[in-house]
């Protein structure tokens, strides 16, 4: 097989940018949840500031991809590699925004003592981190089995999310004073649950890259 | 959809060289079909079997059957002149006769016995209109066809082929000698002509095949590797060799 030097090099570059974006999102989610757990505003601030890098990488992917389409006129799988890079980078950018939203809750609380120790939220975040890593790996290795397996983890996330909601509703009912913080914490649950949905989107993109058809893993 | 061309178990040899191997291919009516593949893969050879242009090459041997409109075209009772009237051809280099624009178009109809001036005028105008050339040349019909630009000459050749009212138009690399604007004009023309005619085109320009044709056939070493809707073939080909070729990683 002939290698098309420029096309192949730039496709490699797209791949490594996506991997870096994935790592960035995992770190951001990790840091945001930690900042919330430890009420660390400084850490939260770092995460808010680092988001610009993620946006920049997304733009870089758009630039490289559109240049390749114009100059190399890729077809079939080469074209899908670029389309998938666009889609995954936009999912990752959204995931970064949602992690940032978690960090903003930390900032909003301004060190206010937590109404209860955080258990389910960090646990949920741990599962989602694994999902993100598996989603990126399924894309990198073009492993559709892993994409399907990863999507199943989303059920656990949904389960934890609904448990968090119930628990916080009860809390709000019993302690009306905790309303504003409990509300913010339900939002945190929601943000993390959304990140998991985007991770399954990445799994779908991996399947699309390999098969040319789009499955629905978000059921 | 009705198949106007049906090719069954076709084998073609140039002396010892096996140029086409067990070709089975149907071409639906009123479509543009593109034949693609690396040089020497047999795509032009196949195109030339459709109006028996290979008959002129000594040492050519053909097995199998090609039917056009249900009739075998290699039967003893087939008049090649009649076949070529039904199956017109346009080549890579525009090849107008060194005659006037008018006479180029009227040549075929005259050959087939049409003498009436107003009938000929009508055919000339209609053919030039269909080839999207009328507006550019209507005031200069007596001028030499050789005074036209390359792109105009090629459209003249298309008009000349249409003047005898064919069913099928074969185009062998018909735009590869033209500039991009002339190429686009011919591509647009193909889109219009396929409403009325069946077009089979050989092209080295894969993006042209993707833009213009409804079906694409990929040839390799004298065999048909894959024939499918153009959209499918260029987005999700079934055969890895097709993928390698259209991705520019092969051939």
Short description:
Chain A has 219 residues and is mainly alpha-helical. Chain A has six helices and no strands.
Overview features:
heterodimer; A: 219 residues; mainly alpha; Methane Monooxygenase Hydroxylase, Chain G, domain 1; 6 helices; elongated; B: 251 residues; alpha/beta; Rossmann fold; 6-stranded mixed sheet; 4-stranded antiparallel sheet; 10 helices
Descriptive notes:
The complex is a heterodimer of chains A (219) and B (251). Chain A has a single domain, classed as Phosphate transport system protein phou homolog 2, domain 2 (Methane Monooxygenase Hydroxylase, Chain G, domain 1, Up-down Bundle). Chain A is 84% helix and 0% strand. Chain A has six helices and no strands. The longest helix of chain A is centred in the N-terminal third of the chain and has 34 residues. In chain A, 39% of the residues are buried. By secondary structure, chain B is of the alpha/beta class. Chain B starts with a strand and ends in a 5-residue tail after the last helix. In chain B, 36% of the residues lie in helices and 27% in strands. At the A-B interface, helix 3 of A face helix 8 and helix 10 of B.
Q: Biggest β-sheet of chain A: count, sense, barrel?
A: none
Topology, number of strands of chain B: 10
Count of discrete domains of chain A: 1
**Which band does the percent of strand residues of chain A land in?**
under 5%
Number of discrete domains of chain B: 1
CATH homologous superfamily classification of chain B: P-loop containing nucleotide triphosphate hydrolases
Query: pLDDT below 50 for ≥5 consecutive residues: which ranges of chain A?
Result: none
The radius of gyration over CA of chain B amounts to 18 Å
Strand content of chain B: 25-35%
CATH fold-level topology of chain A: Methane Monooxygenase Hydroxylase, Chain G, domain 1
Helix tally of chain B equals 10
